[in-house]
Write a structure and sequence with these properties.
The protein contains eight helices and six strands; from the N terminus they run βββαββααβααααα. The chain has 287 residues and is of the alpha+beta class. It has three domains: 91 residues, Ribosomal Protein S5, domain 2; 41 residues, no CATH class; 135 residues, no CATH class. Strands 1-2-4-3 form a four-stranded mixed β-sheet. A two-stranded antiparallel sheet has the order 5-6. β3, α1 and β4 form a beta-alpha-beta unit. 18% of the residues are buried. The mean pLDDT is 85.
């Protein structure tokens, strides 16, 4: 899931800033942006991130601002003079008047600037590592807070499914009466056929009535919803379990819809499916 953390530290000659952004992903994918001086610490940084963040697309950025003017870049005078002599010779041979822009051209060539080489100090790195850990902690707290919101949202949607399931019961008596009346009308017409096997006919009617009964599906749906809430409150790595339970909830809802054969019940079934789809989307954000 999404997360953000930022931490800073002040060193003797620089200010270091660490920023971490995360997005939901099935795996842990780390994309570091690190200055050259700290490039050798990339594996250590990745290891530190993976200790806490088990999953997600992680963008890690470390940058610093130097506060020591003595470490400024200097011009390599000997190299610049050498470039100048060579370019001047070429310009004279070609009768070109390139004096005005020659220095600008030279300064773009390799090795014209001497950049002082910086080395990582162990004590300095310890401070930076603590700063990285602080940023990771902020990300984890951010994600935990978002997780609590997700938990609350999914609990509300499960409760909504349960309420809709109970609402279905208000239509069942009328539905049963409709089915009975339809069967009576059909039976009356069929009884006029003297060649009909009455015992076989009664067996078929009982089988048909049992197929229309949705009590068993409603009981299983209640159990699945309760189990889903239990898993939500359990914590740890429950994403896959919640996904499996959501599939079972969907199976029972679909069966209720196919058996009901009633427009009012179908409306509640559609609303339950809508709530379940939103739950499934949220489950993808859970480890």
């Amino acid at each position: 899931m999404t997360g953000y953390g930022k931490a800073e530290c002040e060193l003797k000659d620089k200010k270091v800033t660490v920023e971490i952004k995360t997005l939901n992903s099935k795996n842990l994918d780390i994309f570091p942006k690190i200055p050259g001086i700290y490039r050798e610490k990339e594996l250590e940084i990745r290891s530190e991130i993976s200790k806490t963040l088990a999953r997600g697309k992680v963008e890690f950025v470390l940058y610093y601002e130097s506060s020591n003017d003595s470490k400024s870049t200097t011009i390599n005078t000997a190299v610049v003079k050498n470039y100048y002599e060579q370019l001047k010779t070429v310009a004279d041979e070609l009768n070109l008047n390139a004096q005005e822009h020659m220095l600008q051209t030279i300064m773009r060539l390799p090795d014209t600037l001497d950049v002082e080489h910086e080395e990582i100090n162990d004590e300095e790195w310890k401070v930076i590592l603590k700063t990285i850990q602080k940023a990771i902690k902020q990300v984890n707290e951010f994600r935990l807070q978002e997780g609590l919101h997700l938990q609350k949202d999914m609990e509300q949607r499960i409760r909504s499914i349960e309420q809709l399931k109970e609402h279905i019961s208000t239509f069942e008596n009328a539905r049963i009466e409709k089915v009975k009346q339809r069967l009576k009308d059909n039976i009356k017409a069929l009884l006029e056929d003297n060649e009909m096997d009455r015992n076989r006919f009664e067996q078929e009617v009982i089988y048909y009535l049992e197929k229309l009964d949705i009590t068993e599906e409603k009981v299983r749906l209640t159990n699945h919803c309760q189990y889903f809430i239990e898993m939500l409150n359990q914590g740890n790595a429950i994403g896959k379990k919640l996904g499996f339970i959501a599939q079972e909830i969907g199976r029972e809802i679909n069966t209720v819809g196919s058996k009901a054969n009633d427009s009012d019940i179908q409306k509640d079934v559609v609303l339950m499916k809508d709530e379940l789809e939103k739950i499934k989307e949220q489950v993808l954000n859970i480890l």
